[in-house]
Structures are given as C-alpha cells and as structure tokens.
C-alpha cells in the first residue's frame, strides 16, 4: 500500500515508535547492523517485501511468529495481530510461488479468522500503547482471508475452489460497500476480479472474463489511484484474453503496454513469459523471442525469486524447443518444469508439461510413453478444469488410439475432442460479439467509458482446434 518514496520515511517513524515501546534489540541481532534499532514485530514485513529483501524476511518470520504467540493482551487484539502476521506470511509465500509450502500458514489464517469472528469487540482499556493496534475491522479481515485463499487456489490450479471463495468474498463486499465507502474495499474487489478473470480464461469462459475485465475498468474509472495501481494488470489481463481468442497482434500490444506501466519484478516476468508464448505461436518473431528468452533464462540469473515463474520459464523454453524440432532439449526443459511444479503442487503447469511431453513422444513414434504422459495430463486438466489442455489431450488420445488400432477408444476421444471444440467455439463467438471486445484495441490513457457493438467475431479459432 506504500509507495517506494514513502518507505524510508515510514521506516524511521516505525523505529521511533518501537523505541517508545522499548523493543528492537532482538530484531537487530537477527538481521544485522543495517536495522540496528528495528522492531521484532511484523510491521517491517511490508517494507522488506516491497524492497525485495527476501533473505531478511526468512529469519524474521520465525521470530515474529513466536512474539505474536507470546504476546499478552486483549483476545480480539491478539487475534487481529495474528491475522496481520499470517496474511503477510501467506502473501510472502505466494509471491515466491511456493503454493505447497504456504498451506500450513493458510490453514492457520483460516482458523484464526474463524476465531476472531466469534469474539466480541469489548471496550479496550489499554495499559500499553501497543494494545491499540487494530489494523482492519474484522469484517474486512474476512474478505482479505477469502482473497488470499483465492490467490492460493488460482496458483495451485484449484479453479472451482477459487470460484467458490470469490463468490463468497464478492457477496460480502457488496454488503460492506452499502455501509462503508473505504477505498480498500474497492482494492479487494479489483484484486479478486483480476484472479477470477484468469481462472475464467483457463476454464473456457472467455465471455464472462471479458465482462469482468470491463467491470475492473469501471471500478478504475471511479478512482485514479486504483487505476494507477492496476493499469499494468488490466492490460496484462487483456493480453491473456487476446491470446485466448487468437488475436496475437493485440496480445502483443497489450503486453507491451503492460511492460511500460509496471515496475513490479514478478509482474514483469509474468508478462514477458506470456509475450514469449505469443512470439512462439506467431512463428516469425525469432529475434524478439531470443531477446525475451535471454531475459528470463531459468538456468542463469533468473530475475525474480518466484518458484512458479521460474518453472513457467522452463516450460516456455520447452515449448520453443518443441516448435524448433529440438526434442531432446525440449524434454530436458519440460522435465525440469515437472520437477519444480510437482514440488509445489502447481497443477496447471504439471498438466501443460505432461501433455507437451506426450506430444513430443507421439511425434517421435513412442506411443506407449506418449500415452503415459497424456492420460494423467487429461485427468489433471479435467480436475482443474483446463479447457485448452483437455482439448489438446483429447486430440492426442484420439490419434494415439488410432495409431494403436483401438477403434473404440479413438472414437470416444474424438467425441470428447468434438465436445470441447464446440464449447470453445461457442464461447469464442459469444466473447468476440460483445461490445467489450473492442477493449483489445485500448493501449493508452484511462479505460474507455463506452463500447460500441460490432457485427461478430473477427478472429479465427482454427489454430486453437
């Protein structure tokens, strides 16, 4: 929530406050001389995370957890402090792309918010100024816990779970916004929508995703600050939508705009990875592609610490090697993706890697090994559910069973492929027919206020099928 210009001023204020509270020495012993008067409280987490001092965060996590647990005070104040600490801990893990590692902390956070919702706001008569710390109303905390749960579910590939918690959070937000005009509620709403939009694109609901992108635009029109904080994300979402409807020129323009608007390292890496996938699919952008791949080389000096993004970079390398016909190299990259995605339960990356490996083995004539990859890819994609991977897997299963003489299984796979194709085609036509589809041409200034309807889809689904 803070700008980088405010960080050092804020840090001085926090240190002064900590001196008044008589704390600080323990943290100085943990971190070192740079923060010689800092506090062993979680107030410094946002500063360290924003300044990307992740090595300093790790030793602080354990110490802060112990201090929060041992703190004696009003029960609702203690639970409020625990929620504050656990939200920062969970978002730290999610920022690092460690979806599996975060599960114990997320479970604690969910239990903590259940506890705090049962406590009554008794009048507080503090004997210590620290007892006055109350960072959010508990109704806002409930929405925030839903939000980080959605973030986790989306990264892990539990998209139905993400949908369930998004619905709950948005319903609670609507009730709160009728009584409370706090700007943080609009921020929560935008972040929730950003995540569920990505889920919709994966599950084959592009028309709904586009309408929700338009909703984010409308929210940002009401607040210049909100638009300033989320403009890059908005253009990134539009770029992902453009990929889903095969508008590659527009996708490139949207991602290029997003890169111009962001200074956030993880978002930058995410955008570059997706832009590389656009160049791979276009097939004639080798110079630009090589330049991008060099900047997100997972083998050498990867620019961010995110486990998830590094695994995705290996996948993009594997995809490019596949299109270049360098199959052994592609297999090496994809096996590294699988190793990393399995380690942290990144289910969608696992499904994508399995189906691409299955395709490679099919091209090489190793039908048995191809089947060993494609079948679990299909099962995992169905569980997510990921429409594109299901479409790809069903096409491979059809061809594999034909090649192996399994006519009945080939017919069943062909029928599945036809069903997925029809669903995607129908959704494609519906999305491109919406007036909001014209958002794909917006690359400068504030979001357009009005949309003009067009006669029908102007893009082809052929390459997706």
Automatic annotation (TrEMBL):
InterPro entries reported for this sequence: MAU2, TPR-like_helical_dom_sf
GO biological process terms on file: cell division; chromosome segregation; mitotic sister chromatid cohesion
Main location: nucleus
Compartments, record wording: Nucleus, Nucleoplasm
Record has Coiled coil as a keyword: no
Keyword Coiled coil part of the UniProt annotation: no
Gene3D superfamilies: Tetratricopeptide repeat domain
One cellular component (GO) term of this entry: nucleoplasm
UniProt keywords, alphabetically: Cell cycle, Cell division, Chromosome partition, Mitosis, Nucleus
Family that this chain belongs to: Belongs to the SCC4/mau-2 family.
The protein, known as: MAU2 chromatid cohesion factor homolog
Species per Swiss-Prot/TrEMBL record: Crypturellus undulatus
